[in-house]
Specification:
- With 224 residues, the chain is mainly alpha-helical.
- It has seven helices and no strands.
- Helices cover 38% and strands 0% of the residues.
- It starts with a helix and ends in a 10-residue tail after the last helix.
């Protein structure tokens, strides 16, 4: 039988456990990681996969909030690409020269973009000269291109035959490929909407599905 002192200690440990659960989780219906990703969220398993692999995390100081419906910028997407490639973006040196003139010298992504440029991992096809627009939200078409390019997926033009707004677009081949692989699909209205801005939940979902199919033994990547 436990002594009074041990009983008090055990009770304190149990109380601390439940306080932690109450503060950081939304059980029994919430995500086991992020407070703002409910258990019935359509992309919960993909979001948690990306977190567990070290590729995506919470935003700002709210580390337990994923902000699934927030948009992702070009700079953030390039940083994600490097993480998927196993690059620790926190150790990248500041480049001595900067190709893109519209990126402020104090911008956090300068070394990230420079490294991606060196590795030929920039996915955007509409870059004009020295303009990158690092804080511009990415589109669904750009997201498809990024996944196909990063994971070296063979182009499959058989997908998205029933989506009328895909043909002739800048990222048609990539969109058809992710649809053919069943990693993405059209919206409920029968369109893919390649020019719509991509949300963080969509980014997590498309990358997670592609990674699980092509890199089942992916090791955890770096994170900042």
């Amino acid at each position: 039988m436990l002594s009074p002192r041990l009983r008090k200690f055990a009770a304190a440990v149990v109380a601390l456990y439940f306080i932690t659960i109450a503060l950081f989780y939304e059980l029994p219906f919430g995500s086991t990681i992020f407070q703002d990703v409910p258990g019935n969220h359509w992309a919960i398993y993909d979001i948690e996969y990306m977190y567990n692999e070290g590729f995506m995390k919470g935003r700002d100081k709210e580390v337990w909030k994923f902000y699934p419906e927030a948009l992702m910028t070009r700079a953030e997407l390039v940083a994600l690409v490097l993480k998927v490639e196993g690059v620790d973006i926190t150790t990248l040196p500041q480049p001595t020269t900067q190709k893109y003139k519209d990126i402020p010298v104090e911008h956090w992504a300068i070394p990230v973009i420079a490294e991606a440029e060196k590795r030929q991992l920039i996915p955007f096809k509409d870059l004009k000269g020295d303009q990158f627009e690092p804080d511009k939200p990415v589109t669904r078409g750009e997201l498809a291109q990024t996944v196909v390019q990063t994971l070296n997926i063979p182009v499959d033009m058989k997908g998205a035959q029933n989506l009328p707004d895909v043909k002739g677009t800048l990222y048609e081949a990539a969109i058809r490929t992710v649809v053919a692989n069943e990693w993405a699909q059209g919206n409920s209205d029968g369109y893919f909407k390649p020019d719509d801005q991509a949300k963080r939940e969509q980014v997590a979902s498309l990358f997670a599905r592609g990674l699980r199919d092509t890199r089942p033994d992916t090791t955890k990547g770096g994170d900042k």
